[in-house]
Design brief:
alpha/beta; two-stranded antiparallel sheet; 10 strands
Length: 526
C-alpha cells in the first residue's frame, strides 16, 4: 500500500504555466472581507519561480491584484483572469479593475482571460459573454480569450467571434465518461485534433489540465499521488515533444474547494497546502508517504488498548488453556483491527474534512466504532472477565433507583446508529454522487464487528433492537447499492466494497450463523 513506485524521470525542466490561487487553511474566496496578505503571495512566487515563468490567475479582487507587482519582481508572466458571473455590476467592477492593471503592468501580462467556465455553470448566455469579451478587447491591445471545457466550444462556436485564441480545459478525471490515467494522452490527442479540425484558424491553448491526488474514484479514473505523478509526467513529455501550449491546474492544493467539489476538489496541486512538493519528477512516489507513521500509530494504539484489557485477559488463566488462548487471540484481534481502523479514519479526517460539520461526523464514526469494540469485548467475556456484572450505570431517577443498560443493548443501539448512517450515506451516493466520497474507513470495522456479534455465545438476544426497521434498511441496501455499482459502470471497486460492507452490517438478516452452527455440529459429531 505504501510501497514507492518507480516512474520514468521527466526530461523537461520547466512548466509552461500553472494556475495559482493563494488561499491557505481556512482562507476562502467566499469571504468577501478577506484580503490575501502580500507576504503570502511573495513566498509563493519565490517558490514557483524555480518551476515556471507563467502563472494563471482567475480574478483581481481580495488582494489578488497584488500578484502583478510580485510577478514583475520575479519576471513571471501573468494570464490575467477576469471573473465573470451572473451579476452585471460585479462583472463591470472586475473588468474595470483588470483593465487598470493592464495599463499599470503591461509587460507582466501575457493575455486576458474574460470569464472561466461561465457557460458550463449556466450563468450567462454566449451572446452576453461575447459582449463582455468585446468590451475588454476594445480597451486593450493584449490578447483576449475565454476559458471553458472543450465541449462547450464545440456546442457554442460563436464564442470564437472576438477571441484571439481558444482556451480549452481538458480534465480526463472530470469527463462525463471518465478517462483512466493510462488512456489520458490518447484522449487529449483526440480532443486537440477535433478542435483543430473545427477551428483551423485559431490557436488552441490548454488552459487547464491535471490530475487529483486524493478523492472519489470515478469509474476508471482513480485519484492518487502515483496517478497524479504519472499523468503529469506523461503529459509534460508529450507537450514538450508535440509543442502543446498549456497551463497546469494547479500550483497548490486548495482546501476551500472541498466545499464545492468534495474531497477531490482540494487536491490538484503540485504542492500541498503547506507548500511542500506533492512529489518530485525524478524520485519514486508512494500513495502513502507516511505509511510507517500509520503503522506505528496503529501499533501504539493497539498496545495501549491491550494494556487496558491485560488484567481482563489474565483472569482467564484460571480456565483451561484452550479457553485462554481462544479468547486472548479474539480480544487481541479486535483491538488490533480497531487500532488500524482508527488510524485510517484519522487519515481520512485530515484528507477529507474541512468544515466543522465534516469533522464532527468523523468524530461520531470514531466514537461509534470504539463503543462497538468495547461492548463486544465485554459481551464476549461476561462476568468471567469482570468483577462486576455486565451492567452500566448511566444515571439515577428521583427515587435514586439505578437505571441500567446492558452492554448488549448498548452494542445494538450503536450498531443501529451505524446502520442508519450507512443508509444516509448510501442515499446521498445515489442522489448526489458526483462530489460524494465513499467513507469506507469509517464503516469497515463496524462491518467486521457486526459479522462477529451473532456468533457470540453470550449474545442470546442477537439483534433484537428494531428488527422491522433494520429489515427495511436492509432492503434499501439490496436495492440502492447495486444501483450505485451500475452508476459507476461496474468498474469502480469502491462501489463493490461499499455493497459488501452493507451486506456485512446487516449480516444477521442473511442468517449465515445457521451455516456455522451446522458446520460446528458436524465437526463435534466426528
Amino acid at each position: 500500500m505504501g510501497r514507492p513506485i518507480h516512474l520514468l524521470p521527466l526530461s523537461t525542466k520547466e512548466i509552461n504555466c500553472v494556475s495559482y490561487t493563494p488561499f491557505r487553511g481556512t482562507q476562502t474566496p467566499f469571504d468577501p472581507n478577506f484580503i490575501v496578505p502580500i507576504t503570502q503571495i511573495e513566498n509563493d512566487f519565490h517558490l514557483l519561480s524555480s518551476y515556471t515563468k507563467c502563472v494563471r490567475i482567475y480574478a483581481t479582487d481580495q488582494g489578488l491584484d497584488q500578484i502583478l507587482p510580485v510577478a514583475q519582481k520575479y519576471n513571471i508572466k501573468i494570464l490575467l483572469g477576469i471573473w465573470i458571473g451572473r451579476e452585471d455590476k460585479a462583472n463591470q467592477k472586475q473588468i474595470t479593475h483588470a483593465l487598470t492593471l493592464t495599463k499599470n503592468y503591461p509587460t507582466s501580462i501575457k493575455a486576458i482571460i474574460v470569464g472561466n467556465e461561465v457557460i458550463l455553470r449556466g450563468e450567462l448566455s454566449p451572446q452576453k459573454l461575447n459582449d463582455f469579451i468585446l468590451q475588454v478587447k476594445k480597451s486593450t491591445t493584449l490578447p483576449v480569450t475565454y476559458a471553458d471545457v472543450w465541449e462547450f466550444w464545440l456546442h457554442y462556436p460563436e464564442l470564437v467571434k472576438y477571441v484571439d485564441f481558444i482556451t480549452i480545459h481538458i480534465l480526463p478525471y472530470w469527463e462525463d465518461k471518465p478517462i483512466s490515467v493510462q488512456h489520458s494522452l490518447q484522449h487529449i490527442d483526440a480532443i486537440l485534433n477535433k478542435m483543430h479540425e473545427v477551428f483551423p484558424n485559431h490557436k488552441i491553448f490548454i488552459g487547464e489540465t491535471g490530475w487529483p491526488s486524493f478523492g472519489r474514484i470515478r469509474q476508471q479514473a482513480i485519484p492518487s499521488p502515483i496517478n497524479q505523478s504519472l499523468y503529469l509526467r506523461q503529459f509534460l513529455e508529450a507537450a514538450d515533444q508535440r509543442k502543446w501550449d498549456y497551463n497546469l491546474i494547479e500550483a497548490f492544493d486548495q482546501p476551500w474547494k472541498r466545499t464545492l467539489e468534495g474531497t477531490v476538489g482540494g487536491y490538484w496541486g503540485l504542492f500541498t497546502e503547506d507548500r511542500l512538493p506533492r512529489f518530485t519528477f525524478s524520485e519514486p512516489i508512494s500513495n502513502y508517504n507516511k505509511w510507517q507513521n500509520y503503522f506505528f500509530a496503529s501499533f501504539i494504539i493497539s498496545g495501549i488498548l491491550l494494556f487496558i484489557f491485560l488484567n481482563k485477559i489474565l483472569t482467564l488463566t484460571s480456565h483451561k488453556t484452550s479457553h485462554f488462548i481462544r479468547y486472548s487471540l479474539y480480544i487481541m484481534g479486535i483491538i488490533q483491527c480497531l487500532g488500524i481502523s482508527l488510524v485510517f479514519q484519522y487519515h481520512d479526517l485530515l484528507i477529507r474534512s474541512w468544515t466543522l460539520g465534516q469533522t464532527s461526523l468523523y468524530i461520531v464514526y470514531f466514537i461509534l466504532n470504539i463503543i462497538l469494540a468495547i461492548s463486544l469485548i465485554k459481551i464476549t467475556f461476561g462476568p468471567a472477565c469482570f468483577s462486576y456484572d455486565m451492567l452500566l450505570f448511566l444515571k439515577k431517577d428521583k427515587r435514586k433507583k439505578s437505571i441500567i443498560i446492558s452492554y448488549d443493548t448498548i452494542f445494538q443501539i450503536a450498531h443501529f446508529a451505524v446502520c442508519l448512517l450507512f443508509i444516509i450515506n448510501t442515499l446521498l451516493l445515489v442522489f448526489d454522487p458526483r462530489y460524494r466520497d465513499f467513507p469506507l474507513s469509517s464503516f469497515w470495522f463496524s462491518g467486521l464487528i457486526s459479522f462477529l456479534y451473532p456468533l457470540l455465545e453470550h449474545s442470546e438476544k442477537k439483534y433484537s433492537l428494531a428488527p422491522r426497521q433494520k429489515s427495511a434498511l436492509f432492503i434499501l441496501v439490496l436495492i440502492l447499492c447495486p444501483f450505485i455499482i451500475f452508476q459507476e459502470k461496474f468498474i469502480n471497486h469502491e462501489t463493490w466494497q461499499w455493497f459488501i460492507i452493507g451486506l456485512i452490517l446487516f449480516s444477521d438478516k442473511i442468517r449465515y450463523t445457521q451455516f456455522f452452527d451446522r458446520a460446528l455440529n458436524k465437526f463435534q459429531k466426528r
